[in-house]
Design a protein that fits this description.
Number of helices: 12
Radius of gyration: 43 Å
Shape: elongated
Length: 510
């Protein structure tokens, strides 16, 4: 049924009896403007969304709503009833979806907002008579300005449309919990919302957006919706969503594209305490986790969606692994020496495994699942387009990759030492740094002077007595060996001299 409301200039609304509807399938929307309030009535048809075939994109569904019938949207924690006064803050911009018939005593509306009435929805006056309501209170609709697009806690992810309808949600790292540029964004039917899309970029690209069952898969159609009254009330902030239907055309997968807003994403996350032996930091995640990471090097033959289905049957469908959550994505990993020196980056497939409700510890189930995935990738890599597989475990188990880590650490330390020495020499030559002066080595002349050895003709320090040369009387008495023994050795102030029998000085005096 269609509903008509008389609104005065103070935006005070008195509920009037409803009027007959032209069609039970129509819904109504009431818009309130900053000018003297007046009623604007229009109809909107709900479009059923057909089932979509699986694609490389995920479905990301927005969780919060601004529905009238959601008790969490009211400050008293319950939906107002017939003896309550309903209050919407005058300065707030709000789009509220009304699901059914509600009885109220009085309602004050905002200066700028809208009420979207579902088929059959209405407000009726109780005249203060509602036996099951109590004495009556003033119920205030909560502020919805704080719901932010880049808050990963406000989204759910599913691989297919069927999984989304069946509430079979996927685990994802924080950067990929928020819609990626190749994802389909879904706002639940029969609901309204208000989301702050502020970003470090001018626009936030996604593949498609579905609102009230209507799918916008072209940039022009969604731009038209954004310029509408509902679009302006539901999306606000410094940036705007943009539909780019091309999505991801790479069968090996596409990177999410939210790295530029990582700081904004992580600002909304509170990291829990982890107490496992070796906490892990997945690429794209804001917190350390207790679990396992399997890293896959891939070729052009790899297909991300086919491998996702393989993981589903290999891990998630096993009863023993029922508590394990798996996140699969293509990421750009930056390699660093000692954790802070950039070296290189490369694309890889990252498989993150955590156990649901495992607390701050990690169980053997995650280790077993990671080893199963790694063994399957290594044994069937040729058929899957996987060139290599490695894993890290929070339990501290080497997992086949510890030796490489140790070797890399040793090489890293050596390279750091070389770099530091080279930097020191370079800075010293430029005069940026100075080295402390070393004590000078004594010269031979100074050593001789300090030892009491003077110039030629000065006193002579003999050091120690040599019985062979210093005392002629102690020379061996071998006749004819040295000729005239009296003249064979002579001692003067300049030194000790002796006759060399192999040298005949007469050869030169002749």
């Amino acid at each position: 049924m269609n509903n008509f409301y008389n609104l005065d200039t103070s935006s005070h609304m008195t509920v009037m009896p409803t009027l007959p509807s032209q069609s039970p399938h129509h819904c109504c929307l009431i818009s309130l403007h900053s000018q003297p309030a007046k009623m604007v009535l229009r109809t909107a048809a709900l479009v059923l969304l057909s089932l979509l075939s699986p694609a490389s994109a995920l479905y990301k569904q927005w969780i919060p709503d601004t529905n009238y019938g959601n008790a969490t949207n009211w400050d008293k924690g319950s939906v107002p009833c017939g003896t309550d006064r309903v209050h919407f803050a005058a300065g707030r911009h709000v789009s509220v979806y009304v699901e059914t018939v509600y009885s109220v005593l009085e309602m004050r509306l905002p200066v700028d907002g809208e009420l979207i009435l579902a088929p059959g929805a209405a407000f009726v006056s109780s005249n203060g008579q509602d036996p099951g309501c109590g004495a009556g209170v003033t119920a205030t609709f909560k502020d919805s300005e704080g719901f932010r697009w880049f808050d990963p806690e406000l989204w759910r992810a599913a691989a297919t449309w069927d999984d989304l309808q069946a509430s079979r949600y996927l685990f994802a790292v924080h950067e990929e919990s928020v819609p990626c540029r190749q994802d389909d964004v879904v706002f639940r039917p029969a609901s309204s919302f208000r989301v702050d899309v502020s970003s470090g970029q001018q626009s936030v690209p996604v593949k498609s957006i579905t609102i009230q069952g209507q799918k916008f898969s072209s940039s022009s159609s969604f731009s038209e919706y954004l310029s509408s009254r509902s679009g302006k009330l539901q999306f606000h902030g410094s940036s705007s969503p943009v539909v780019t239907p091309s999505g991801c055309n790479d069968a090996t997968g596409c990177e999410c594209g939210n790295t530029a807003d990582r700081q904004r994403i992580c600002a909304s996350v509170t990291c829990p305490h982890v107490a496992c032996q070796k906490p892990l930091q997945p690429v794209g995640h804001c917190c350390h986790v207790c679990g396992a990471i399997v890293s896959l090097q891939f070729s052009g033959a790899f297909n991300l969606e086919s491998y996702r289905q393989r993981l589903l049957h290999l891990v998630l469908n096993k009863p023993s692994y029922g508590s394990i959550r798996v996140g699969l994505s293509k990421v750009q990993e930056e390699h660093r020496l000692l954790g802070f020196i950039p070296r290189a980056s490369e694309s890889k497939i990252q498989v993150v495994l955590v156990e649901e409700d495992s607390g701050e510890h990690v169980s053997w189930l995650v280790d077993a699942a990671a080893k199963d995935i790694t063994a399957d990738a290594r044994s069937n890599g040729g058929d899957l387009g996987i060139e290599d597989a490695d894993m890290e475990l929070s339990s501290g188990d080497a997992g086949g990759g510890e030796a490489g880590v140790v070797v890399g650490a040793v090489i890293g330390v050596l390279l750091v030492v070389v770099v530091l020495l080279g930097a020191g020499v370079f800075l010293h030559r430029r005069g940026t740094i100075t080295l402390p002066s070393l004590p000078r080595m004594p010269s031979i002349s100074s050593w001789r002077k300090s030892s009491g050895v003077g110039d030629l003709g000065g006193p002579l320090d003999h050091g120690f007595d040599n019985p062979m040369f210093d005392k002629p009387t102690l020379m061996p008495s071998e006749p004819g060996l040295y000729g005239d023994s009296a003249n064979s050795i002579s001692i003067t102030q300049s030194g000790v001299h002796f006759v060399n029998p192999a040298y005949d000085e007469t050869d030169f005096t002749a």
